[in-house]
From TrEMBL:
<dbReference type="Pfam" id="PF00202">
    <property type="entry name" value="Aminotran_3"/>
</dbReference>
<dbReference type="InterPro" id="IPR005814">
    <property type="entry name" value="Aminotrans_3"/>
</dbReference>
<dbReference type="InterPro" id="IPR015424">
    <property type="entry name" value="PyrdxlP-dep_Trfase"/>
</dbReference>
<dbReference type="InterPro" id="IPR015422">
    <property type="entry name" value="PyrdxlP-dep_Trfase_small"/>
</dbReference>
<keyword id="KW-0032">Aminotransferase</keyword>
<dbReference type="InterPro" id="IPR015421">
    <property type="entry name" value="PyrdxlP-dep_Trfase_major"/>
</dbReference>
<keyword id="KW-0808">Transferase</keyword>
<protein>
    <submittedName>
        <fullName>Aspartate aminotransferase family protein</fullName>
    </submittedName>
</protein>
<dbReference type="InterPro" id="IPR049704">
    <property type="entry name" value="Aminotrans_3_PPA_site"/>
</dbReference>
<comment type="similarity">
    <text>Belongs to the class-III pyridoxal-phosphate-dependent aminotransferase family.</text>
</comment>
<keyword id="KW-0663">Pyridoxal phosphate</keyword>
<dbReference type="GO" id="GO:0008483">
    <property type="term" value="F:transaminase activity"/>
</dbReference>
Amino acid sequence: MTHVFHRHLRSTPPVADSAAGMRIRDADGRSYLDASGGAAVSALGHAHPDVLAAMHAQIDRLSYAHTGFFTTEVAEQLAHELMRSAPAGMSHAYFVSGGSEAVEAALKMARQYFVEIGQPQRTHFIARRQSYHGNTLGALAVGGNAWRRAPFAPLLVPATHVAPCYPYREQRADEAPAQYALRLAAELEAAILAQGADRVIAFVAETVGGATAGVLTPVADYFRAVRAVCDKYGVLLILDEVMCGMGRTGTLHASEQEGVVPDLLTIAKGLGGGYQPVGAVLAQGKIVDAMSQGSGFFQHGHTYLGHPVACAAALAVQKVIQRDELLPKVRADGEAFGAMLQQALGDHPRVGDIRGRGFFWGVELVADRGSKRPFPAALKLHAAIKKDAMARGLLCYPMGGTVNGVDGDHVLLAPPFIASRDDLQEITRLLSASI
Ligand code: PMP
């Protein structure tokens, strides 16, 4: 009997025992090809020697120092590296231990910013349906799945939700992408005005949607239109790139492809590539300056902030990505991966849409392609695919979600950046067999 509190209480998963490169091995000796990097975490695959060496060196030198007393050389180096490549105007990185913590810190940073500049009446967040921002209470409140929030209502953070950018389901047939972008921006504006033009703290969105929607790539101009609405009302733009960031879509930050600069940017998963739990909020100088010149103190913090070994792992991961020129590789091989998926699954009667960028792809499953009718949620198709794929030795990331009240099944693919074209072919072959 297990004493680990597993999330699914009526079944115990296989025991992961060891891993190297693209593969994880379980205690029964079965080998799995990692097509999802866990949940879009692994960038360099498993047991990368440079990352292990950097972590060992850091553990030997200094394994822990509380940020209430010290900074560390490695945290300073990582922040320096992140600022070197950050969107314009960013000045600081606030380190945390994961994605939910990053979102939670960003929400509080945004709120405190307005308190510091004398606008404490701004208390409301606007986010999007069909989004995922984490499971802590603040992140859950801005998350877009009503069924995830429902058991914990009333939530502590006031938030309303507008439509995501979801062309496959929500762009009208007679609507050009630019018109669709403007329609969504108008909905955001209406939501801001419904709260009161000076009551909203921030609009929170994943730059490329992930965990609940099988990858949602925005149409061109969407984020520019959204940024313009935010600017009109002094509302901050918080982009959550916990899943889609740090190279996953072929550029370091996904927002680079949208031509917008966020006020706060959350990163995690790929930052440490799974070697350590680590995340960060990258913050615009104006926000840090307001706090610095105001109370001089961010009213937030955790015991493991800026953990030296986590920072060493993240720094090593980011150095390897640069040294081995993995971002151009992700762009080129990502395009090839998309073509492989299209060729194998594009005509499949149960595949409605295949979309993605870089090494971040989603396959949306439908019961009927013409009407785009999803499979009934009760069927739990995504769970069946996950199980079947694992039996074939493939780790992919299927999930079921709710699209404006319509349930749907998606498979998310997010292989480590080191995946070869042969690996991508094998992933495509195994997934097609499962579907
Ligand atoms: N934001 C996004 C966009 C995510 O995809 C996730 C995790 N799937 C989170 C936040 C939460 O991250 P974590 O699970 O590390 O707390």
